[in-house]
Structure formats: C-alpha cells, structure tokens
Amino acid sequence: MNALRLPLAVALALGVTISGFALAAKPSVVILATGGTIAGAQAEGQDAGYKSGSFQVQDLTKAVPKLGELADISGEQVVNIGSQDMNNEVWLNLAKRLHEVLARPDVDAVVITHGTDTMEETGYFLSLVTRSNKPVVMVGSMRPATATGADGPANLYNGVAVAVHPGARGRGVLVLVNDEIHYAREATKTNTTQLDTFKSPNRGKAGMTNAGRVYFYDPLATKHSSASVFSVDGLSELPRVEIFYAHANMGREYIDHCVALKCQGIVLAGVGDGNATKAAVSGLQDAVKRGVAVVRSSRTNSGITDRNVELNDDELGTVASMELNPQKARVLLMLGLTKTADPKKLQEFFNEY
C-alpha cells in the first residue's frame, strides 16, 4: 500500500515513510519525582504555609495534559519530601536511579522534580556524578500546586520542552524555573518567595524558554557529566563535610568540635574573599594539621575566592573554592574526598569543576 494514501494518524502509528522521510517517534522522557513545593498543598486556599510532597508524580503530569504533545512521558516517585530534608542517602539513591534510567536505550532524557531550597546542591551533585550526555533537567516551583497562580505546571511543561531539545544534550544538569534555564553549577536561590529566585551570578544563564520554545546561550566551560571523574559506583555513604558561616566575633569552638566529631572536611563561608576572625582561622589551620580538608568560600555568593588572597592558602594548607558558593563547595569537597585528601589535588578539582 502506498504510504501517501494512509491516513496520517495510521501512518504515524506504523512509522512508515512519507515522501522519502521517516516519521520520527516522539522522544521518551522519564520524570523522577522527589517532592518539594511543586508537589505541595495548602491546608486552606489562601494559606502562605503548605506541606511539601503532598502529590505524586502522576498528579503532576495530569495537571499538564499537553506534556504528551512534547514526548512520551513516564514517571516514578523516588522520594516525596521537602528539599530541606535532602540528605546524602537520598542523593546517592537518586544518582544511582538516574544512572540506570539514562542507560536505557529507550530513554532520551530525564526531568527531575525537586524542591527549590536545595535544588542547586542536588543539581550540582548530579552534574558531577552523572556520566551521561543525555539531557537532565531539574524543575521546581515557588508556589504549591494548590495555590492561585501555581507556577509548577508551566515549569514542568517548559522543563520537558528543554529536555527534548537537541541543544540540551551534553550541557550537564540544567535547572528550569520561571522561564529561565540555568546550569546547576551556576544556579543559586536568591529570594525566599519570588518566582525569579534563581540567578546565575557569575557566568550567567544557560538560556530561556517561552511557551515551550527553547533558546540556549553559551555552553558550560567547566567539567561535568561524561568529562567528570566522579561517580557514585560503590559508594554507600559520603564523607562528612560541614559549613561554618563567618561573622563578627566568630570563635573557633565549633570548628574544634567538628574536628572532635571526626569531620573529614570543613567549608568556610567566609566574609568578603573567604576570610574570618583570627580565632577562626587559627582553628581552621589546626584542623588542617589534624587531617581535615578545609575550603575557603564566601558568604557573598558571587565572585571568585581565589588562592592566597586575604589569606595565604599555601601556608594554611587550605583550598580556595574559586567560583563555588559554600553549599556547592561542600558538594565538590565531599566528592573530592572520595578520591583524595591531598589539598593540592583538591584545589585542582575546584579549578576544573
């Protein structure tokens, strides 16, 4: 039978060739749901408060019926929590499940729904341990699913549109909120309630969306995905790394306590260019002498914390976080410590990733 005489719907179903061109099947996208505000519900319609993770992944996809026009969608619930409760165990399980899904030949891309509070940390972690160049897009919302003007459905629709776009391949883990695409490495949450909370203060956005249309900007220059040396293979836990927030009159007591608890790493969220009081710096130097890896970052959340500026890293034995804010410096330090405790090698990781 001549394919040109078949009704279009039948031709699509059979995958036959029309005018010499094969009719391509829709891409396959798996949604891995973890909870968060995008799955949250208010007790009352006007309540500012809400419970994260009230809805399942099937509820989220049903709220966006046009998703099926973009891709063949399937989903699974990995966890259902507020992202303030994200922890190392969930990260490891999510990363391993993501690896399994991406390895399937019938899967073209993955979208992860996630709370916005720690999305930047989860996203950066996944960008370092996911050895696939298939698109991975993280989607969240600032308003719960039951709110007037809920932003979750639009973000989920645009997230899938980004995931199936050819330009998303090889860009590492992306974050999609409020029509803006960010690299997980660059994105940071900057506002408690506003829809445009995510910014990429150092290198800028990865792109933008407009009603499902996708526009990409420059690719990410640092190592990620298939170029990364990090993996969760064989890992059942991650090294303990804590963050200490610098402030006026900061002491060293909590730093000493962290060392006594056998922390393997400390990140300083320092004032200015990664600085702290003399007492705190003395505590950090002693921590290094006792085998604890120490990374200097900045509480300003933008700019570069470079080596030997304000503090002498060569003398202290500390590592400079470069562009990474404290929460992301913690992620890289944890993974770095699965490879080495040598501060020189750790510094190479911070220079490259």
- The level of helicity is 25-40%
Contiguous uncertain segments of 5+ residues: 1-22
Distance between the termini: 56 Å
Put simply, the count of helices is 11
Overall structural class, as computed from helix and strand content, comes to alpha/beta
The neighbouring-strand order within the major sheet is 4-3-5-6-7-8-11-12
Q: Give helix and strand order, one letter per element, not per position.
A: HEEEHHEHEHEHEEEEEEEHEHEHEHH
Radius of gyration: 22 Å
Give the beta-strand count: 16
CATH architecture of the largest domain, by name, is 3-Layer(aba) Sandwich
Brief account:
With 353 residues, this protein is α/β, with parallel strands linked by helices. It is built from 11 helices and 16 strands. It has helices at residues 8-14, 57-62, 67-70, 88-102, 119-129, 152-163, 253-260, 278-289, 313-316, 326-337, 343-352, and strands spanning 17-18, 21-22, 28-35, 72-81, 109-113, 136-139, 173-177, 180-183, 188-189, 198-199, 207-210, 213-216, 241-245, 265-270, 293-298, 319-320.
Describe the structure.
By secondary structure, the chain is an alpha/beta fold. The protein has two domains: 25-227, Rossmann fold (3-Layer(aba) Sandwich), CATH 3.40.50.1170; 241-352, Rossmann fold (3-Layer(aba) Sandwich), CATH 3.40.50.40. It has eleven helices and 16 strands. It has helices spanning 8-14, 57-62, 67-70, 88-102, 119-129, 152-163, 253-260, 278-289, 313-316, 326-337, 343-352, and strands spanning 17-18, 21-22, 28-35, 72-81, 109-113, 136-139, 173-177, 180-183, 188-189, 198-199, 207-210, 213-216, 241-245, 265-270, 293-298, 319-320. The chain has an eight-stranded mixed beta sheet with strand order 4-3-5-6-7-8-11-12, with helices on both faces. A four-stranded parallel beta sheet has the order 13-14-15-16, sandwiched between helices. Strands 1-2 form a two-stranded antiparallel sheet. A hairpin with a 2-residue loop joins β7 and β8. The radius of gyration is 22 Å and the shape is globular. The model is unreliable at 1-22 (pLDDT under 50).
